[in-house]
Amino acid sequence: MTATTVDSIVIGGGIVGAATAYHLVRQGAKTLLIDRHDPGRATDAGAGILAPEASDTKSEAWFDFAVEAVSYYPTLIEQLQNEQEGDTGYAGCGRLTIAVSKDELERFEAARRLIFARQKRRGLPKSDDLHDIASAEAQRLFPPLAPVLGAIYYRRAARVDGRLLAQALRRAAERQGLNIKNAGVEQLIVQPARLEGLGLKKRAVTGVVVDGEAVEAGNIVIAGGAWSHTFGEQLGLALPVEPQRGQIIHLHLPDTDTSDWPLISALHGHYMVPWPDQRLVVGATREDDTGFQPYPTAAGIQEVLSEALRVAPGLAQARLQEIRVGLRPQTVDRLPILGPVPNIDRIYLATGHGPTGLQLGPYSGKLIADLISGQVLETDISSFEVTRFRSLV
């Protein structure tokens, strides 16, 4: 039986996989997206905070890449608005980084020094866009907020609904010829290395088996999120990607206009994301060693609600609307894995984005598509190659 043949196969239909497939078909590649749609996919539960300039993450590699990734969003959103009719889930908004209690002040001051040092070094954002504000102004911007001991306001933050964006990417890609198969990949088809003349030809991944059928492809991208490590096992490659559970609660505030409220980043590691439909997303737990268990727990719900009410006691009468649970694909060094697999041809990795998949994912997909098509990358991704885990490769 003759196998089906395509130019590219993308495994995984979360934000990274959907973006990769979208950019491949825009470049003219006959592409198949294979999506098992596992419960607990991080894209479906993520908060969608887009504001690296206000982040206190110490990794300069992550920060530089995140700034590039978020800067790409307006271009991508404009394309999607022209190519499909659905909501992309993207909107601009402000962001407050705050300290509510004395135990947060030391970390707040450290974050403040880092944020403003980067601003000074880069000359961006402008001081009108990123600056300190008083407690009264913070409460004016976000009325349920407690009195704060310190606040930094970033005016040009944005938010995105991961579910809506992934759907928009898929719709636009399908209009341009993307084929989607809702199934799981049973195995990769790996051609063994062989001697040719005096040299050794590398192994190559030439396709996949899905629903008992072989599908051949010129290139394969593994974008399986927290489930990506299973393919590493078949390649003889240890992918240090593990699920980190995050529990997120959606609150409903009847008769309240939340459309202009800013994002809130509190120094105990939690956040709040307002949406214009009288909804406020609060989260999130960061639970390691939970395995693939995408369900809410009593302890997780208590943690999220307790922190939300500590920071914003004015939310006490908010209605509990929904609980979402996502399994973030977390690497041991908290950085994504992007690029080709060493010593194996035609296989690429796009995974391990952890809690920042919605920030980094669309741009990661573009860069992987560019890499496959032979374009010179506009951004250096060498810090994210799997070869950095040399003891594991």
Could you characterize the architecture of this molecule?
The protein is α/β, with parallel strands linked by helices and 393 residues long. It has 2 domains: 4-44 and 164-241 and 333-388, 3-Layer(bba) Sandwich (FAD/NAD(P)-binding domain); 92-157 and 243-330, D-Amino Acid Oxidase, Chain A, domain 2 (2-Layer Sandwich). The chain is built from 9 helices and 22 strands. It has helices spanning 15-26, 42-45, 60-83, 105-122, 135-141, 162-175, 229-235, 298-311, 357-372, and strands at 4-11, 31-34, 49-50, 90-92, 95-99, 130-132, 150-154, 158-160, 179-181, 185-191, 194-196, 199-201, 203-210, 213-222, 241-252, 263-266, 271-275, 279-283, 319-331, 337-340, 344-345, 347-351. Strands 1, 2, 9, 10, 13, 14, 20, 21 and 22 form a 9-stranded mixed sheet that branches. Helix 1 (15-26) links the parallel strand 1 and strand 2. Helix 1 packs parallel to helix 6 (162-175), helix 1 (15-26) packs parallel to helix 9 (357-372) and helix 3 packs across helix 9. The longest helix has 24 residues, at 60-83. The chain is globular and about 70 Å long. The protein starts with a strand and ends in a 21-residue tail after the last helix. The model has no long low-confidence stretch (mean pLDDT 94).
